[in-house]
Every structure is written in C-alpha cells, then in structure tokens.
Amino acid sequence: MGSPASTPQEIAREAVRLLAARRLPPTPDNFQAAYHEVAGTRPLQPFPLAQLRQIGQALPERTPAQLRFKTLFNRAVTRHSWDDLEKLLVQHLGAASSPPPPSATPPATAQPPDSAEPAPHADEKAASIPISPDIAEPAARVIDLTLPLVAADDARLREMGEELVRYLRLEQHHAPTLRRMLADYAFRLSFGVDEQLGVREALLGLLRQVLEHIDAISPDNPWLRQQLQALVQAAQPPLSQRRLEDLQARLKDVIVKQAEAREQTVRAQELMRQTLATFLERLAQTAVSTGQYQAKFEACAQALERAQSLADMAPVVQDAIQTARAFATDTQRVVAELTELRDRADRAEAEVQRLRRELDQMAELVTHDLLTGVLNRKGLENAIDRETHRAERTGTRVCIALLDVDDFKRLNDTLGHLAGDAALKHLADVARRSLRPQDTVGRYGGEEFIIVLPDTTPDEAAAVVQRLQRDLSAHLFLHGEQPVLITFSAGVTELRPGEPVANAIARADQAMYRAKRAGKNRVMQA
Ligand SMILES: Nc1nc2c(ncn2[C@@H]2O[C@H](COP(=O)(O)OP(=O)(O)OP(=O)(O)O)[C@@H](O)[C@H]2O)c(=O)[nH]1
Questions:
Q1: Which of 25, 100, 376, 458 has its CA 20 to 30 A from that of 71?
Q2: In this protein, which residues make up the domain named GGDEF (predicted)?
Q3: Which candidate in 195, 447, 448, 481 is catalytic?
C-alpha cells in the first residue's frame, strides 16, 4: 500500500480499490464501511429516529415539569440532535439527585437498592402536593400503632417509621419524596418482619421442646400427659394474646398438678421407708432377744429336771424369775418403742392429711376441665373477668352464650356414661375448632358450656353459635362406628357494663330454656 490517503477524493479511490480487492459489490453500505476503514474514522450509526420517537411518545406529562421534559426530548429527536438529548438528560438527572424543597423536606433515609424512582425535576420540586388528611392521618396512625411491634428490636426502623409519621402529618407532601420514604420503610420493614417471624418460630420451637421434655418425665400421670399434649398443640402458630393467656393458665395447672404429684410421692416414700426400716429393726431385735430368753428358759427347765431337792430348785426358780422379769422389761421396752413408732406413723399420717388439704386448696387454682380440656368454672370466671376489663378499656361489647346439650340423659341411658363423656369431649373439640381465635369456651358444669365472645354484638354472637350448631351437625360424634348427632340449645346475652356476671348468666340460662321449650337445637337471645 502507498502513502495514506488524505483528501476525500483519494480516500474514495482507495475505498473502491479495497472493495474490488475483497470482491465486494460497491453498495452504499459497503462503500461507507470501506471509506471509514481507509480514513480511519468511526462509521456513523444511523439515528434511531423511530425508537426515540416511541420513547418520546411514552414519556409522562402529568406535571408541568414532565410536559416540559417531553417537549424538549421530542424536539431534540426531531432534530436528530444527540447533543441536545445528552444535555437534556444530564440536566434532568442532575436535578433528580438534588434535595427536595424545604417546605416538605424529608429526613435523609437510606435508598433501597431497587429504588428506581426518579426524584422530582426542578420545576416539580417547587410543587408540594397536599395529600388528603383522610388518607395521610390514618396511614400515619397505622405506622405509629405498628411501630412498637415491628421495630421493637430495630432502632433504625423505629427512626424511619417516626420520621415517616411526622412527614405524613405535615400539611404539604412531596409525592416522590413520600413514595421514596415509604419504599425505604417497606424495604427495611421486610427484613424486620422476617427476623421477628424467625425469632417467634424459634421461641415456639423451644417451648415445644421444653413441653415435650416435661411430658417425658411425667409418664405415669394421664392427666398431666393430656394437659401437656394440649399445651404442645396450643403452642402452634398463629399465636394470639388469648392463646398465650390460655397457654399460661394451662401451664399453671400443670405446675400445680406436678407439685402435687411430686409432694405426694416424696411423702409416701419417706413414710414407707421409715416404717419399713423400724419394723425390720424391731423384728430382728425381737427375734434375737426372744431366742436368748428361750435358751435361758430351756436351761432353767433342764436344771429343774435335774434338781433332786427343794434346795436345788430354789436358785433355778430364782434364775427363772429373774429371766422372766428381764423378759418382761425387754418386752415393755419393745412395746414402748412400737407405740412410739405408731405415734410417729400417726403424726406422719396427720402431716399427709394436712398436705392433702393444702393441695386441695391449690387444686382450686386449676382452671381447666379434666374431661374436656376446655376451661372449668374457675377458668371461665377468669376469662369473663379479663374480657370484661378488656371491653371497658377498648369500649367494645362482650357477649356470652350458655349451651346445654339436648336429651343428654337419653344419650347416657342408651349408649352409657362413658359414651356420654366422649360426646361432651367431642362437643368441646368441635367448639374449639369452630370458634374464632378470640372466643373462649368453658364447661360450666355437667352438660352445660359457656362461650365468651369478645367484641361481639348479640346478633353476631347468635350467628357464631348457630355456626357451631352447623359444624356439630357436619362433624358427627362417633360411638365406635355409629355416628351420633349431638345438638344443643343456647341462650345468648350481652354482658352489660358493671352488672354482676351471675345476672348475665341467669339471663342466658332463661334464654336457653326458652330455646329448649321452643323445640331444642336452637339459639335464643336475651
Ligand atoms: N356422661 C356424663 N353425663 C353427665 C355428665 N354431667 C351430667 N351428666 C348427665 O347429663 C344428664 C342431664 O340430663 P337432664 O338435665 O335431664 O337434661 P337432658 O336429658 O339433656 O334434657 P334436656 O336438657 O331437656 O334436653 C343427666 O343424666 C346427668 O347425669 C358428665 O360429665 N358425663
């Protein structure tokens, strides 16, 4: 190749030669490529007019700033001006990274990695948008209320939440800023929530393990086993405050019963050990001393047989009398010791009785019914008390429903008392599954149950109880293979503020009797 081409004509000539040498047809594209190759310049890419027009059309024009940006963009595209487009984009992105206006300046928050939201354009920045207080205030309240829960272990999240709440309560809001703050908060929150769920799961797992271990060390007490199994079940998510309260009450029952079982075992063992030890000791002593006296009396008898005269007999008789005296003394000692042993046994027995009375009093603290596993009367009293106070605090209403199984005597008479027991247990199980998490069921006595329904109107309470009736018809009690329909009549009433609970129960009872008289298997309100 000769000296490099420098004028356009020379370059063009050289380009034609190159095409001929490469046997390429001299099309405009081939010629253009060869020309740039010879000249050592960059081939110009065609201006992507169609694509840029498409982008220009899709640009938003909701705000004056957006409209202005769109106009300038389309103008640059029409002019095929890369320079204008470049300037426009640089200016726009520069504005996007500057802070928002002071009237609604948000505090600096971390930008989430996926935050692709552009910040406002210079013109847009000036326009703060008032968000209706109807929306901003409830949103602020929601965040405010949930903060103690979600940010308990995350100071940064709490800070971000508080900033967001303050910002939402301003009169003017800058929409992109608010959007960014919300995105930041949601981003951080997502980690916090995952973490908290993990912690809760782990704690529940630990609790279940502890319960299973307690279960393993109380193998010979069926009641404890039943309670512990109920506890393991109750410690499954989802948890609620009421479920935790129930867990707590059950755990207390288990502790009381376990203390009872332990004390009784220890006392009984101690008494048994003492009595056995003393008895064996005395037995051995009596055997030894009786053997000794027997040998002495034997010797006296033989000496008497050998005696030839009264004079020979006198010392033998003397000896025998002394032996008899010693025997009597020894026997008295043994009798005294055995009496002391009996007194000790009596005192131990009295102690056991005292302990039993004490434990009976403790058993009154037990809050769950042994047969059905639901609350007993005492547990119900506590639950009603708790719900009444909660209702007073929150300004809500509480209802109770009193349920009485229909024709239960006939069921007992035809299927037996054990089947009756199993039927009550079935009803309690269905009720527990059917009721809402906030509702509480307890056995009021015999075949009567009470359901406590917080935050509920009488109409709603009646509907809940009717749903339970349907569930009971759908889940029949099985006596062996035989399906048995159990129904109940119920009275529903509201717990009026300040009234004694007994009054409300009496009202529910009257309503329940009206339901019985009206044909059973129905719910009446009082
Ligand atoms: N198996 C069993 N029976 C119980 C228990 N508690 C109470 N009962 C029986 O329940 C029956 C209740 O009978 P009633 O009060 O005459 O009532 P009913 O037969 O259900 O008739 P109505 O209430 O009019 O529908 C009695 O026979 C009690 O002995 C229990 O824990 N287990």
A1: 100
A2: 396-526
A3: 447
